[in-house]
Specification:
The longest helix is centred in the first third of the chain and has 37 residues, at about 70-110. The chain is globular, with a radius of gyration of 26 Å. About 70% of the residues lie in helices and about 0% in strands. The protein is mainly α. Mean pLDDT is about 85; it is low at about 320.
Length: about 325
């Protein structure tokens, strides 16, 4: 009598039937992601193509805007320094305030007051930059001049606070303060939402072990929120790097200057402000020189975001945020 085979054929798990809505959403998301890459590549190609004539520009041929630099590198170099210098100072000013306000809204204030304060912070993001510029030149600069005089008198031995103080106070520090107020809403909003996402079990465990409220925040909330804090800071830095009108209105710029002084009347300009000031009257190769400045700003912004992504990826194993 023959032996019958008892080997069962492997069962294939049935595939879930995709609904039309899922297919549409998946395809739309894919198209949107690809479109972002295409737009970014298109912008890069445009900037590179339009900036190529700038490499042959010289002041002898009348190709350099303004009065600084004999070639495109000598013209754009100080502008790149000024852009980074003003933006970094603004970030240093806004960063601790954004964390403090975010923690106050999420973990200290009562619900009604937290909602009102959150709305006020969010409304700051809706104010046009030209309004901040007008406020900076008409209100902040005259009001802060006595404080600058005090800094120069008692801390003038530090090169950052060396005099003479600008009168009116249209210096790098004033422009950085205006930029700090402009980037504060987006940084605060990001920090607030990340702080609120901290798992309640983490906070309760820290309190159960005897931690104070601040120790609980230091041990549970801040480590969890670190990637979000970095992301918010980079969003604020990106806004500060590209700001145009507020800086152009507040900053008293000297072409071609590289200086770390914060209070003086002669200050380095930024790329965005220089483009806005010179583009209406530019033609020919001068336009290419300004577009090359835009290309440098584009590269700086991409590098800042890639650096932030690298920092977040290094730290993500210590947080549940990713």
């Amino acid at each position: 009598m023959g032996i019958m085979s008892t080997t069962a054929s492997p069962q294939v798990a049935p595939r879930a039937k995709q609904r039309p809505g899922d297919i549409i959403f998946s395809r739309t998301s894919l198209i949107a992601g690809v479109l972002i890459l295409v737009i970014l590549a298109g912008v890069a190609i445009f900037l590179v193509g339009q900036a190529l004539p700038a490499f042959g520009a010289s002041r002898a041929n009348g190709d350099i805007p303004g009065t600084a630099g004999d070639n495109v590198w000598e013209y754009v170099g100080p502008l790149a320094f000024g852009t980074l210098w003003v933006a970094l100072i603004a970030l240093l000013i806004a960063f601790p305030f954004s964390i403090g306000i975010g923690l106050f809204i999420s973990h200290y204030a009562n619900r009604k007051f937290a909602q009102v304060l959150g709305y006020v912070i969010d409304l700051l993001a809706a104010i046009p930059s030209v309004v901040f510029g007008l406020w900076g030149i008409a209100v902040l600069a005259p009001a802060i001049k006595p404080f600058y005089d005090w800094l120069s008198t008692y801390l003038g031995w530090i090169p950052l606070f060396a005099g003479p103080v600008a009168n009116p106070a249209t210096s790098v520090l004033t422009a950085a303060i205006v930029l700090a107020i402009m980037i504060l809403p987006i940084m605060t909003a990001m920090n607030r939402e990340v702080f609120l996402q901290t798992p309640a079990l983490h906070e309760e465990a820290a309190l159960a072990l005897g931690a104070t409220h601040w120790e609980m925040i230091k041990m549970a909330v801040l480590p969890f929120a670190r990637p979000g804090i970095i992301s918010g800071a980079m969003l604020g830095l990106g806004r500060a790097l590209g700001e145009t009108m507020a800086v152009a209105m507040v900053l008293s710029a000297t072409p071609g200057l590289v200086s770390f002084a914060l209070l003086q009347g002669q200050n380095p300009n930024t790329i965005a402000a220089a483009i806005a000031q010179n583009f209406p009257e530019a033609s020919g190769t001068k336009i290419s020189v300004l577009i090359f400045g835009g290309l440098v700003l584009f590269v700086i912004s991409i590098a800042a975001n890639l650096g932030a992504r690298w920092i977040v990826n290094r730290r993500k194993e210590f947080s549940g945020a990713n």
